[in-house]
Specification:
Keywords: Cell membrane, Endoplasmic reticulum, Erythrocyte maturation, Glycoprotein, Membrane, Mitochondrion, Phosphoprotein, Receptor, Transmembrane, Transmembrane helix, Transport. The chain folds into 2 domains: about 200 residues, Growth Hormone, Chain: A, CATH 1.20.1250.20; about 200 residues, Up-down Bundle (Growth Hormone, Chain: A), CATH 1.20.1250. It has 18 helices and 6 strands. The longest helix is centred in the last third of the chain and has 32 residues. The protein is mainly alpha-helical.
Length: about 500
């Protein structure tokens, strides 16, 4: 469970802080609902922050990058792979959507495995599957071997299931109270950077040439590079990645370690989450937002080529702009949440601006000015992708003391379902009515999700403003009063 969920900070002595400000050993925070009994505080357990925590999160971020790169490497040069394998554009769209489809049935057993076996086992399985998939794709560079390249992509998509739920878990197990949102953002950052490279590199490595042998050579180079990186990361995980630090980083983690495995029921946890109304609202809004991002990313090549023929490389750069702007948004959201704890206001602002960004992008795509598309796409990515770590951390807040892996898995499952629906529907709409109609389709669903955000905030306002004083107070004192005003203004 997240180390954010403890109450009452306990301060280190002046001597302790001077002796070792980085790797301190001492009390961190009181565990939830165990700090006071009979007016006395529960005994504090030793905690410590290890420098190795940064290596762990960066290694995770790296293999997440390698995996997410492959999500879009087919879609961003859709027209080239369509020609090479002699298939239609919808078949190549499925090379991206297979990442979404695979996630839905496998997330629950993988989340169970994460709870039962821990981070290291999940990391080993993820990198092994990713490495296997890349080498299968190396063997698929023949025009008649489309089924083989689909198999390789399936292995990589299965690896993604073991990856997406880990950022919040790594942040909780390894990082201190004031670092968890930043650490979670770094974990998500790797995934986003991989998508950015997936937009940028394939159009450069695989030019649109007519000679099939030359085209096969270029595709092989891309696949060999990916396989080499995936193999190196698998070896690093085997020798470097650790399950957890010897001493917990916070009192909340110390309390979590004291819970025996037989005391935890995964199915009961799922049932409790599905009865949590604010969390269900977050699942819907998160799925709508991220599903739109998946659709835009998958179909970006087709949308750009329609209005700007021959601009495959430019389409990749626009995709890069979307994701780089999103990475900046993610990091800013992570640091902002660590400093302010204003989950509700930030959620509303980012979701609303995602809707505005989608409307502006839809309206300017066909104007004939690529520099305008770069600007509007960047603005869209900043807010839409910036919602990713915000959703993870907000979910942890709404569902404590449930497992972060379980709540993150349900969020991602929603995103995959909406991503498949939006990608298929928008693709069909674009084919029949054009890109403007397809983008308006996404705008409508983002607009439908906006009232859900308000209902979500309304539930959280009641929870913050009426909870007893002895309960967990994650929000700041100023935020609680701000929420009272928000409730008065928005829900008279």
């Amino acid at each position: 469970m997240s180390d954010k969920h403890a109450i009452g900070d306990t301060k280190l002595t002046e001597d302790q802080s001077k002796a070792d400000p980085e790797n301190h050993v001492g009390p961190d925070r009181q565990a939830e609902c165990q700090g006071q009994e009979g007016g006395q505080e529960a005994p504090q357990q030793p905690t410590r922050l290890y420098k190795r925590r940064w290596m762990i999160v960066l290694l995770f971020s790296s293999y997440s990058l390698c995996n997410s790169f492959q999500w879009i490497q087919y879609g961003i040069i859709n027209n080239i792979f369509t020609k090479f394998y002699s298939v239609d554009t919808f078949a190549i769209d499925w090379m991206s959507m297979i990442y979404m489809l695979t996630y839905i049935p496998f997330i629950f057993p993988v989340a169970w495995l994460l709870e039962k076996k821990g981070l290291r086992v999940v990391a080993l399985v993820a990198t092994a599957l990713n490495c296997t998939g890349t080498w299968i794709k190396v063997a698929s560079v023949r025009p008649h071997l489309f089924a083989v390249t689909v198999l390789g992509q399936f292995c990589c998509s299965l690896a993604q299931v073991f990856i997406l739920g880990m950022p919040s878990q790594i942040a909780s197990v390894w990082f201190g109270t004031e670092e968890v949102s930043t650490a979670c953002s770094i974990g998500v950052f790797g995934n986003q950077l991989g998508i950015a490279i997936g937009f940028l590199v394939p159009p450069v490595l695989v030019p649109n040439v007519d000679d099939m042998d030359e085209l096969a050579h270029h595709i092989s180079i891309m696949f060999y590079i990916t396989a080499g990186v995936a193999t190196l990361l698998f070896i690093l995980v085997v020798f470097v990645f650790q399950e957890r630090p010897k001493l917990p980083p916070t009192q909340a983690q110390a309390t979590a370690r004291s819970i025996l495995p037989e005391q935890y029921s995964y199915t009961a946890s799922i049932a409790r989450l599905l009865r949590n109304r604010p969390f269900i609202l977050l699942i819907i809004t998160y799925g709508l937002n991220v599903g739109c991002f998946y659709a835009v990313g998958t179909l970006l090549n087709r949308m750009i080529i329609i209005h700007y023929p021959g601009e495959e490389v430019t389409a990749g750069r626009i995709g890069l702009t979307i994701v780089v702007a999103g990475m900046v948004g993610s990091l800013i959201c992570g640091v902002w949440l660590d400093r302010t704890k204003t989950y509700k206001q930030t959620t509303l602002a980012v979701y609303f601006m995602s809707l505005v960004g989608m409307i502006v992008y839809a309206a300017t795509l066909s104007l004939g000015h690529l520099w305008v598309v770069f600007i509007t796409a960047g603005a869209l990515g900043f807010f839409m992708t910036g919602y990713l770590p915000l959703g993870f951390e907000f979910a942890v807040e709404l569902t404590y003391p449930e497992s972060e892996g379980t709540s993150s898995g349900l969020l991602n499952c929603s995103a995959q379902v909406f991503g498949i629906i939006f990608t298929i529907c928008q693709g069909k709409i674009i084919d029949r009515f054009g890109t403007l109609a397809g983008n308006i389709f996404l705008c409508v669903f983002l607009l439908i999700g906006l009232p859900d955000v308000f209902f979500l905030l309304y539930n959280m306002v009641n929870k913050v403003c009426h909870r007893p004083q002895h309960s967990r107070k994650h929000s700041t004192f100023g935020e609680a009063h701000g929420l009272e005003l928000f409730k008065f203004l928005c829900f008279p």
